[in-house]
């Protein structure tokens, strides 16, 4: 009996771990328990062969589900331009978010880099003011970022605070944000936001255009003429310039 129980436990762990790759472990456990109850019903009213085929089909469905989710994630990564964002510095990321939120209909102000009082961007729309702390990180964003945006709310008379990152958050940061009503926009949420806002096509985000160090950033659009903004290298450093230059001379400093 104990041997059979250990086999069931082993199979259960395998199926749950396979499901938990793309959904929460609790949900995976619920799905497995449901499948297990169905299998008992099949075993009781049919035979072992059908019982065995049932579990084979469950396993195949799980693998197909994981393949589909993995494919969708890779497609979204390609469409979102997240790899371009990963190569930005902090100031460029703030500029990027400024353009992104403008396209979402917000009035945007980038605060001074010297003494920003915990907010990198101020968003306003429909009498709501939002403080945004932007974190272009290669590691998890910790509790300090949440503390900073909480501290900025009173100074800027804001209604709500957001932290936006290309990365993920530590558990303490998530807990503190939840306790104080702070919205956390992590990597996956940022990808969805970009795709929803820009309706980017299947060809990706950046492409070589054969003009030196220029790199097309399709998410950045010119506020004056609507053309694409490109990253250029000038005498004083890098900046975003309109791709329709010299017809349009709009630039965004970095």
From TrEMBL:
<feature type="domain" description="Restriction endonuclease type IV Mrr">
    <location>
        <begin position="85"/>
        <end position="194"/>
    </location>
</feature>
<dbReference type="InterPro" id="IPR052906">
    <property type="entry name" value="Type_IV_Methyl-Rstrct_Enzyme"/>
</dbReference>
<keyword id="KW-0812">Transmembrane</keyword>
<dbReference type="GO" id="GO:0006265">
    <property type="term" value="P:DNA topological change"/>
</dbReference>
<keyword id="KW-1133">Transmembrane helix</keyword>
<dbReference type="Pfam" id="PF04471">
    <property type="entry name" value="Mrr_cat"/>
</dbReference>
<feature type="domain" description="DNA topoisomerase type IA zn finger">
    <location>
        <begin position="222"/>
        <end position="254"/>
    </location>
</feature>
<feature type="transmembrane region" description="Helical">
    <location>
        <begin position="52"/>
        <end position="71"/>
    </location>
</feature>
<dbReference type="InterPro" id="IPR011856">
    <property type="entry name" value="tRNA_endonuc-like_dom_sf"/>
</dbReference>
<dbReference type="InterPro" id="IPR011335">
    <property type="entry name" value="Restrct_endonuc-II-like"/>
</dbReference>
<dbReference type="GO" id="GO:0005694">
    <property type="term" value="C:chromosome"/>
</dbReference>
<feature type="transmembrane region" description="Helical">
    <location>
        <begin position="28"/>
        <end position="46"/>
    </location>
</feature>
<protein>
    <recommendedName>
        <fullName>Restriction endonuclease</fullName>
    </recommendedName>
</protein>
<dbReference type="InterPro" id="IPR013498">
    <property type="entry name" value="Topo_IA_Znf"/>
</dbReference>
<dbReference type="InterPro" id="IPR007560">
    <property type="entry name" value="Restrct_endonuc_IV_Mrr"/>
</dbReference>
<keyword id="KW-0472">Membrane</keyword>
<dbReference type="GO" id="GO:0003677">
    <property type="term" value="F:DNA binding"/>
</dbReference>
<dbReference type="Pfam" id="PF01396">
    <property type="entry name" value="Zn_ribbon_Top1"/>
</dbReference>
<dbReference type="GO" id="GO:0003916">
    <property type="term" value="F:DNA topoisomerase activity"/>
</dbReference>
<dbReference type="GO" id="GO:0009307">
    <property type="term" value="P:DNA restriction-modification system"/>
</dbReference>
<dbReference type="GO" id="GO:0015666">
    <property type="term" value="F:restriction endodeoxyribonuclease activity"/>
</dbReference>
């Amino acid at each position: 009996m104990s041997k059979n129980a250990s086999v069931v436990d082993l199979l259960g762990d395998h199926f749950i771990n396979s499901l938990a790759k793309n959904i929460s472990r609790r949900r995976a456990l619920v799905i497995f328990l449901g499948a297990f109850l169905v299998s008992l019903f099949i075993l009781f009213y049919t035979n072992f062969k059908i019982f065995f085929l049932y579990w084979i089909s469950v396993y195949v469905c799980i693998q197909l589900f994981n393949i589909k989710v993995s494919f969708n994630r890779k497609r979204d990564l390609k469409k979102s331009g997240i790899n371009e964002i990963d190569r930005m510095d902090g100031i460029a990321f703030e500029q990027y978010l400024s353009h992104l939120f403008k396209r979402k209909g917000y009035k945007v102000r980038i605060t001074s880099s010297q003494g920003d009082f915990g907010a990198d961007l101020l968003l306003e729309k429909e009498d709501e003011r939002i403080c945004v702390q932007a974190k272009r990180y290669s590691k998890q964003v910790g509790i300090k970022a949440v503390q900073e945006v909480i501290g900025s709310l009173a100074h800027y008379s804001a209604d709500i605070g957001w932290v936006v990152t290309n990365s993920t958050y530590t558990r303490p940061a998530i807990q503190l944000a939840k306790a104080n009503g702070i919205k956390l926009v992590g990597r996956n949420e940022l990808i969805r936001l970009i795709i929803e806002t820009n309706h980017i096509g299947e060809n990706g985000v950046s492409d070589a255009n054969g003009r030196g160090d220029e790199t097309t950033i399709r998410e950045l659009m010119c506020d004056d003429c609507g053309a694409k903004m490109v990253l250029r290298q000038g005498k004083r450093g890098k900046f975003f310039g309109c791709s329709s230059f010299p017809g349009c001379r709009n630039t965004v400093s970095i």
